[in-house]
Amino acid sequence: MTLTQLLSEAKHAVVLTGAGISTLSGIPDFRGVGGLYQRTDIDADKLFDIDYFRRDPSYYYHHSKDFLYNLDEKEPNIVHKALARMEEKGIIHAVITQNIDLLHQKAGSRKVLELHGSPVEHYCMKCGRTWDFDSIAREVQNDVVPSCDTCGGIIKPRIVFFGEGLPEYAITEAEREARKADLMLVLGTSLTVYPAAAVPEITLQSGGKVAIINRDRTHLDRYACWVARDLKKEFEELTI
Fold it and tell me: pLDDT per residue over 127-166, tens digit each?
């Protein structure tokens, strides 16, 4: 069985993606070699902790400058482009992602459900005023910690920090797609962070199949109909 065969036979294929797909675009993942959890200069738990952010937003902005606020330098890779192409052809029906790098949209994917939010919009936590990503990125790249020039409040990205709930629409729609899917393709995620990790479990419980491409083993490998380890190789061999 190949990835091409799996997708060709599916009637309603849905994709769940994690940080592992973006490593091909030069963006480190969280737990892999060189990832945030491996770095000694960053406390990754503190970086995305909502309580700490409220006390000291400078920690987040200073340490995310070189991996989040330089996204204009990052380009979609073979995986992002293939998923966008297959959505256009009607082969896959949605991309559910844990990523916050906007590369699916940059590649042309239309139905992207961002479970962990998105930096595309920032907002003042005090008065609610909003800014686009590019205007905030310019300030951050100039080592400025952005604050609201209307009320002086803290500006926060619409990324889900530890201690915050997931976007209601995204999680509801992801669960709906997972129930409808006869094939859930899991790409580049270790399936350790819930509730995102529960999405393919919903597909299995609903009678659908799960196929996984991830560098390391996941707890769902034994339930998957197909497992591979090398994303780049599998997508280079894809003929859809």
Answer: 999 999 999 999 999 999 999 999 999 999 999 999 999 9
Q: Are residues 125 and 107 part of one domain?
A: no
pLDDT digits (tens, 9 = 90+) for 72-94: 899 999 999 999 999 999 999 99
Amino acid at 221: D
Q: Same domain, yes or no, for 171 and 150?
A: no
- pTM > 0.85: yes or no: yes
Cis status of the peptide bond prior to 195, with omega within 30 of 0: yes
CATH no. for residue 102? 3.40.50.1220
Q: 158 is written with which tokens? A: 């619409």
Identify the three-state secondary structure at position 99: coil
- Indicate which residue of 104, 116, 122, 219 is catalytic: 116
Is 116 marked active-site?
yes
Note whether 210 and 199 are same-domain residues.
yes
